[in-house]
Amino acid sequence: MNSNSEASEERDAWIISIGNELLIGKVVNTNFSWLAEQLTSMGYRVKREITVMDDIQEISWAFREALSSKASLIISTGGLGPTYDDKTSEALAFALGKRWQVDEKALEMVKKKYESAGMEVTEHRIKMAKLPEGAVPLENPAGTAPGIMIKEGETLIIVLPGVPKEMKAIFNGMVEELRSRTGLAVAEAEFSVSGVPESSIAPLIDKIVAQYPSVYVKSHPRGKELGAPLLLIHLSARSRDEKEALSMVKQAEDALISLIKEIGGKVKKE
Amino acid sequence: MNSNSEASEERDAWIISIGNELLIGKVVNTNFSWLAEQLTSMGYRVKREITVMDDIQEISWAFREALSSKASLIISTGGLGPTYDDKTSEALAFALGKRWQVDEKALEMVKKKYESAGMEVTEHRIKMAKLPEGAVPLENPAGTAPGIMIKEGETLIIVLPGVPKEMKAIFNGMVEELRSRTGLAVAEAEFSVSGVPESSIAPLIDKIVAQYPSVYVKSHPRGKELGAPLLLIHLSARSRDEKEALSMVKQAEDALISLIKEIGGKVKKE
């Protein structure tokens, strides 16, 4: 990791994943990787991800941890539906020390969905319109439960449903706002190396990281360390200036490729 | 969630996932879901999963959090290789307040691998043999970096590589030991419901959960709440007695299916 030079410029994001289905291994957390990729490309540094059970204490613990770290952005997924184990909204109210109450705008959103389908607004459906005091409901174009947005100090909290299509639909409506909060450009480069084991590449990466402290370099083993080594090398840099980010990554990539070729590694640009 | 009656019997496990590649969204964390499924079937309750960056402070924070919660089992994946950003072993030593030193048995394992491939044992390769004082290296049948096992009070800590094949190979060697620690049998049942929205099923699940407090019921929306609702319903129970676990799940499943059919839901056993 190479946090020294860029840490102060970066904007930390936390992702909180809620749902027993993740913790019993029934569902693979693709929401997390999708969000992480989106946020990284916007200039956020996704610092931590926490997965917790459908339990008010557990969920509010996760929000409080993220808030106490002064994260710039907290995004949660899951626990927004109508069933007894959908507890995210209530847990967030609890974590913030705020009342949990029916929001008129959210209730309008929920009512409209059910009424246009010719269905009653029952107690379990009204629950989806209960928000922490001061929160704003986010229109859900792909489902019934609204998302939730609330600011706490400098931290923006966005609560999304766990159903991927709904999560993405609400998130996509917030891209402009989220992007404007970082003002950073990210440049990336990637290539693969075959013919030399990761442990032989390691000292070369050390050199490059020392030489280009603002570039982050990561190697991902894809083959066998012994026998048929194949490595994917990923470089990235962030800057307020897009050209500068691109130039830093390019320089570090060229330098690393030269060193790798010197020891007989075969390089292939992805 | 339904933790009341089973919480005291259960054995809590934490999973710690280490690697920037997860936090930038390059890699989907299938290690977590694989481990979670394995541990759940052995009777563990996977309580939390935390993903952290390749950073000593971050990794040791995660281990300390898990230790302070008195987890029965902590399993980490990632950060065991030879590169500069493989820091799990050192961070664990730091978290435990123990020395980080070359372990003779681990060094033998690493040496054997490289020497049989006709390669030198360099400084970066020796790093893979450094363990926290008092830890035991775990043979890696699919790669070079040994896993690590250490007990801290009542907590068993197992450190695995991030490469899925290596992670699974080391884990599979520990199944007997891990299973014997819980002594619990888990019974599960699953069926799908179409034709009624999740918000109409919610009050029925509430009833069943109140009636069968030791059975955990979870609904997963798969279709559209309005229009073409499709729900997957998953029930599970744990007991020291396998027959009892099976019988509890069966009773709750039958009762829930009856209620769902009464309101016109179509049930299909998976």
Walkthrough of the structure:
The structure is a homodimer of 270-residue chains. Helices cover 40% and strands 27% of the residues of chain A. Chain A is built from ten helices and twelve strands. Chain A has a six-stranded mixed beta sheet, sandwiched between helices. The first copy, chain A, has a four-stranded antiparallel beta sheet with strand order 10-11-9-12, with helices on one face. A two-stranded antiparallel ribbon of chain A has the order 4-5. By secondary structure, chain A is of the alpha/beta class. Chain A starts with 10 loop residues before the first strand and ends with a strand. Strand 2 (44-52) of chain A pairs antiparallel with strand 2 of chain B.
Please state the oligomeric state of the protein chains shown: homodimer
Most extensive interface: pair and counts? A-B, 74 and 73 residues
| Number of E strands of chain A | 12
Fraction of residues of chain A in helices?
A: 25-40%
The neighbouring-strand order within the major sheet of chain A is: 2-1-3-8-7-6
H and E order of chain A: EHHEHEHEHHEEEEHHEHEEHE
Structural class of chain A: alpha/beta
Please tell me what the overall shape of chain A is. Answer: elongated
Q: Which band does the percent of strand residues of chain A land in?
A: 25-35%
State the separation between the terminal residues of chain A, measured CA to CA: 23 Å
Indicate the low-confidence ranges of chain A by residue numbers.
1-9
Q: For the report, how would you describe the main beta sheet of chain A? A: 6 strands, mixed
Count the DSSP helices of chain A. 10
What is the residue-mean pLDDT of chain A, rounded to a whole number? 92
Return Rg of chain A in Å: 22 Å
